Amino acid sequence: MVEHYRPKNLTEALEWMAERKLIPVAGGTDLMIRARNWQGASRAMKGDVVYIQHLEELKFITETETDYHIGAGVTQAQFYDCKLLPDYAREVVGQMATPAIRNAATIGGNIVNAASVADLLPLLYAADAQIVLKSRDGQRVLPIQSFEIGKYMTARREDELMFEVILPKLKIKKYLYKKMGQRRSSILSKVSFLAIEVEGGTRIAIGAVNDTVVRSKELEKRINEGGGVKSVLDGYKALLNGSDDKRSTKRYRERVVINLLMKWMEEKR
Ligand SMILES: Cc1cc2nc3c(=O)[nH]c(=O)nc-3n(C[C@H](O)[C@H](O)[C@H](O)COP(=O)(O)OP(=O)(O)OC[C@H]3O[C@@H](n4cnc5c(N)ncnc54)[C@H](O)[C@@H]3O)c2cc1C
Predict the structure, then answer these.
(1) Is 198 a pocket residue for ligand 1 (Cβ < 6 Å)?
(2) pLDDT, tens digit, for every residue of 211-265?
(3) Which residue ranges make up each domain of the chain?
(4) 30 lines ligand 1 (CB under 6 A)
(5) What homologous superfamily is domain 172-268 in, according to CATH?
């Protein structure tokens, strides 16, 4: 029998998570697929659950001089509607799922679920975001690259909740975001590609092609220094190691990535 826990606040949630093994449930939009084994989802959800969607301590969007702070419990709809947040980030979230799903699905759920197709991840890699985790014993702050350690794998300990994501404020000169799928939204990405031009040059993050997001500072440096197009494209091709799956083929993904890279580099010249 599954036990259901509904804490009255964050402290109580963390207290319970320190004492027993619990699966946090936020919007439940990823978990419900696993719980019902829909679409043949292989990672069945088994265990007692703690509901966190109602916790006010996780629902905030604030800013400092250098960063935006976005609570893990902020929904995609709240993120998209928040005019404080930069356009390039809101555009990514605006293309996720459907309005109904966006009303329930949280930012924290997308990040902690760590799917290779999670659309928030390329944005967070490109921005060099940080993830804040809380437990009864304290807090840890990890760069996104150290938090996402593989497909459906993060560095979160079982007694920790994701508390917030810290998104650095960037001076964006221009950006290109393309999400490729069967339909524009309500469909998981075949490729999600984000290129941004900031002070200091280009940053490129590519999602849904490998187990985790592709970002290469070495290749970005090559682009910024005006390196040959072929050497840049070959460099990215060598990084794409995904395989064919039910959404798409490796060949299609590679072609899309190469076309978007060429478009970006042409526009940059
Ligand atoms: C129809 C449909 C369309 C979708 N479209 C897209 C899409 O276009 N792009 C996309 O990227 N995703 C999409 N998704 C996937 C999903 O909606 C998102 O990943 C969503 O952001 C998950 O958030 P959630 O709050 O529902 O997470 P949940 O399902 O509640 O949780 C997901 C995982 O994160 C953990 N978790 C949640 N919050 C925390 C926390 N604060 N601390 C620690 N662990 C936590 C849970 O234990 C679980 O393992 C879609 C899903 C559906 C059903």
Answers:
(1) no
(2) 999 999 999 999 999 888 999 999 999 999 888 787 788 899 999 999 999 999 9
(3) 172-268
(4) yes
(5) CO dehydrogenase flavoprotein, C-terminal domain (3.30.390.50)
